[in-house]
User: What shape does this take?
Amino acid sequence: MNIRQTMCGAALFCLAACSDPMANMLGEQQGAGEISITGSTEAFTALMQTRTQVGEMADDGVLLIEWSAEDSIGVFGNVTEVNALFKGNNTEPTPSTAFSGTLAEGEVPTYAYYPYSATVNDKTAIPVEIPDEQMYRDEMSVAALDFKASDNIEVSAEGGYRVRFRQMAALVRFEIDLTGYPDLADDELLMDVTIRPAGNGSGAPMTGGFTYDLTDLAAGLQPGAATTDGITIRFAMPPTAREKAVAYAVVAPGAHEGEEWTCTFTTDRQEGEFTTTALCDFEAGKYYIVPLTAQVLVNNEAVVEEIPEEEMEETANCYIVTTPGEHSFKATVIGNGKKGIIPNAGFHTESPYINPKSAKVLWSDRKNFVTNVRVENGRVVYTIPDAIASSVNGSIYGNAVIAVYSEPECKGEILWSWHIWGTDGMPQDVEYTNQAGAKFMVMDRELGRSSAKSTSSDYNVLRYQWGRKDPFPSKDIQVRNFYIDGTTKEAMSNLKGYNYNLETDATIADAVHNPMHLIHSATSSQYGWLAESNVYLWGDGDRELPETLTDASTAGAGWKQQKTIYDPSPVGYRVASIFTFSGFTDMPTGTTSDVTEPDEGNSIVTARLDYINYVKVSGSDWHFMANADDATGVYYPALKSLEGKNGTEKKNAGYGGYWWAAEAFVGENGRTYACYLNTDQYKTGSVVAGSTSGNVIDTYGRDEYLLRDAYAVRCVREE
Assistant: This one.
């Protein structure tokens, strides 16, 4: 079957139709199919469904359709035979093939249709479903919606029968060239195009559910109850505004000549619309050109406007999943998008937009936690298998990092990466009140932890170097393995390039392109991972920190800058402010190391506990009071951190934990300091609580030596 076209007129928005008669559309390319009646009494079973595929494309746009290997058709006999299955004998794609099947004795094949469906039982109502939204990856997308039928079956001189199929649908060929259109950026991506009649459903339906009658093929497709008047084509690999592109969509035949049409298109950041007039009807077996060019947009006075921020999909560097199934997220925007870039803050880019061509899982802490990863229409699509769900309550847990690449087949450089976080239900918020009376809505668990409960599964809490968006898996005693390319790896030491030392000083771009690497500077005098420090990476930089935490004007809720593209938190959250945790202690300085009661027996221990607001403590695991009325406590487990220099685990003398805050600043000595919450183990008896300094908790910590180390993160609701 050849689908050909000739220009039927010249217009700024031209629908060009084939002028050949229908008979010329049913040639030998695919129209010549041979049915061999085998005479066997056994029916075919266990057929794998297949669809035709596109062969070569001629210079004039003709698509040559071929039968796929072992394709199948349905056949009706001249008496009682209904929907007999005939299977192609070809083992590779071919323009024509012989089909073998079984008819009842004495029956003659009279009608045939494609593709075969076991549910068909009425030759006068063969179902056809044409989606109103069609994803275009390449010409094979057309073959997936190839609908053919035949009432022309003749005895073959070579034996058996010869059948000629006719196409039951039409094609729309979008020819796109927006080069030179001033309202589009060079790197702007065309995501989709929609055409439909203007007005309220006045046009003939183009998509939806149809049927046709094998005994009256000339009547064509008949609309069912659910049809639509337009068609939207989405691009699996969106072209930029400066690329020429061709794409096909399948539509139902129908009368459209003279209708006013609305054409809308969406880029990764804007929407456009214009109206024009259709010049032709749609006929089965023919294709029609819809040009979308800069000249068409100008001449038809297209309106192109930025998508309002409130209508934009919220994006982040972490996506929470609570159920198995297929999920997706926007992959053309990094982090939280344009609003996450602080102007003139020294970020690695001033644009939040990227154009990924492929994606894969870099690592996961459960085998096959994330599967079937791909880039499609500017989104990363992935699946959480049903087998991941708990057999008890259906919940899931696990962590994975997905990266997108600049080239197909996961080649080129990593453009960005995201954390997929499986949790036991959606995390909940707990209201904290700090010493200054300010309130924070804080997530009930660390990033990576599946449950808010005190469990032995706290090993899946993830660690982050300060200012970086990418997590690193735990090496706690409860788990020893994680997975790369589906292969079990022993923890840290075998993670590819984990302990990463750049030959030259590290940049922010190095961190973006190397999400699987802990980084420490090549300059020994630097204690961070960046050679040139940047205090704005998590959006609360260069802030003057007060000496006391009781003053609402200086130690109240809030951040100095916005959430940034490097923040590892999910949508709606950001890394905690350093003032979030001050209510855990009554010390105005935020730390119990300042307690100076005389050391008489356990008096220091007792005094320090008196200054800590907690419900209970078990070894190094604390349940701090979120506010004065909290009788349950919020759980902060003992968490080992990762040494940024070599990837080894480190812990406090008493084995507590560290949690990063968003704040960083440059000290008087010229070095960069980052802020954190630190806990330690409470020990009874004559041993000073927790460590040689006697510091059980430090809610207001800051240090220049720790920026390269990887700690846990608690997220707080954005204001």
